[in-house]
Amino acid sequence: MLPIEFYFDAAIKGLLTGSVYAMLAVGLSIIFGVMRVVNFAHGEMLVAGMFGAYLVFVTLGLDPILAIPIVALVMFLFGVALQRGLIDRFITAPEHQQFLVLIGVALILTNGLDMIFGPDARNVQVPYAFASFEVGPFFLDNVRVYSAIAALALIALLYLFFNHTLTGKAIRACADNNRGAQVVGLNVSRLYAITFGIGAACAGAAGCLLIMVIDVTPHLGADFTLLAFTIVIIGGLGSMTGALLGGLLIGVSEAMAGILIQPSLKSSFSFGLLILVLLLRPNGLLGKRSS
Amino acid sequence: MLTIEAVDLHYGDAQALSDVSLTVEEGEIVAIIGANGAGKSSLISTIAGIYRPTRGRITFEGEDITGWPSHLVCDLGIGQVAEGRQIFPSMTVRENLEMGAVIPRARKLAASTMERVFTIFPRLAERVRQDAGTLSGGEQQMLAIGRCLMGQPRLIMLDEPSLGLAPTIVQEVFRIVHQLNTDGLTVVLVEQNVVGSLKLADRAYVLENGQIAMAGSGRALLDDDRLRQAYLGL
Q: Does the structure's ipTM exceed the value 0.95?
């Protein structure tokens, strides 16, 4: 039996990593909530963000956290262009067609990154990579603490955007009643472009935070798409708070699985949680009942 | 003010409107009546730019707006109170009203128009912070009309504003429509409440199977035997 501090330590680490997962999942949730499109290229966008942060680090020497505005802006513009140029044509298409389009985008992203960067793992070593805070009996890695703070701050910023700006409210209106949005003359396709841009920017920002703790290769994407999707379903499709809760939950469950069973089984723990939620609360923890 | 010429509308293979022509003059109340599925809502949605007609022309104040997207049509001054109200249920009353004034023509006037909406509908003022989905049916209808007014329309199209409301509230809605018209708003009123809307309307069109079957002044249609038989069972 391990000492109790050990579990607490894992739980705290899980919460910190979970905040970054939440940042990723919030993007997926926003896109789905507003456009009813599942972004199957979300993990690949995260990987693109990781490479973006890596590029900024090797060229400008900028800390990945400080690279967030640059990477997020580039990913935002990428998302807007993708929505305008491609996805808009499939908005009313059957779901399996949307699915194939986005799988295609994912493949292009993965192989494009492979062509540019090659298959080798790359990482970013920040000066404080091995420093840690000592809080009571716990040691918290600076890297994880900073990235969790950044993730939660960005989520808070998104919350303010959606509740206190006219554009943010208009996007919520599209999600709430699409026909109603057309009736009052909201420019729905423009708002969709902004929404997809924000979703992609979330993935990019999460990439900046994740590159500080794990190495990046071009083929990581699919796993993270699945992770984000799992989180969003556990939290409740289309709910931002749900994505936050789901992210933290998955973060903790992965960390617990790491010490209770073995680290390589951590995904099975998350999927077990997913099955449990689907059995007991099919709409997710904070999901609305579908009407 | 608004002219519709020989408009056809198809949903896939099904034809919803066939050779529909009508005009609305400035300052009028024009009623469009007809049974369920006659094409009334399709007509409204086509004018609003939500559906694109397969044939024909729609002009507003001389401008050809055929096939324009809904946000540009709204910005020209054609407002719509849609079938089923189409409010934003999980947003507050205030946010719903704000959404009515996002279009460029209305944005600067939002604050003063909201005051005006609150004088017309004091109930909405009492419930500004409440989620719109928790309002009663009548209040939701008031909100839908108020939200439409936020967009500074010059022509307002109301689709079944009395549907599902208690008789006293229906009276209230008709009174407000009349008041808005007296204040200078041109009104297109789609209704199943045939007597109420014909009494209110200057002119009316009867839609049957996607075609205009009859047209005339409200009074004349009320006295028309064929219409009385078909719609009033008299």
A: no
Sign of CA dihedral B193, B199, B204, B208: positive
User: Which residues 137-176 in chain A show a CB within 8 A of chain B?
Assistant: 166, 169-170, 172-173, 176
Write the CB contacts of A200 (distance below 8 Å, at least 6 apart in sequence): A27, A45, A75, A76, A78, A79, A82
Q: Is the pLDDT at A228 greater than 60, yes or no?
A: yes
User: How many CB pairs below 8 A link A and B?
Assistant: 67
Question: For residue range A206-225, what is the model confidence (pLDDT) as tens digits?
Answer: 999 999 999 999 999 999 99
Q: How far does the CA of residue B154 sit from the closest CA of chain A (Å)?
A: 14
Domain ranges for chain A: 4-117+162-280
CB A213 within 8 A of CB A144: yes
Q: Give CA–CA dist A224/B82, Å, rounded.
A: 42
Inter-residue contact B161 to B200 (CB < 8 Å): no
* B75 interaction partners in chain A (CB closer than 8 Å): 185
Handedness of CA B139, B145, B146, B148 (dihedral sign): positive
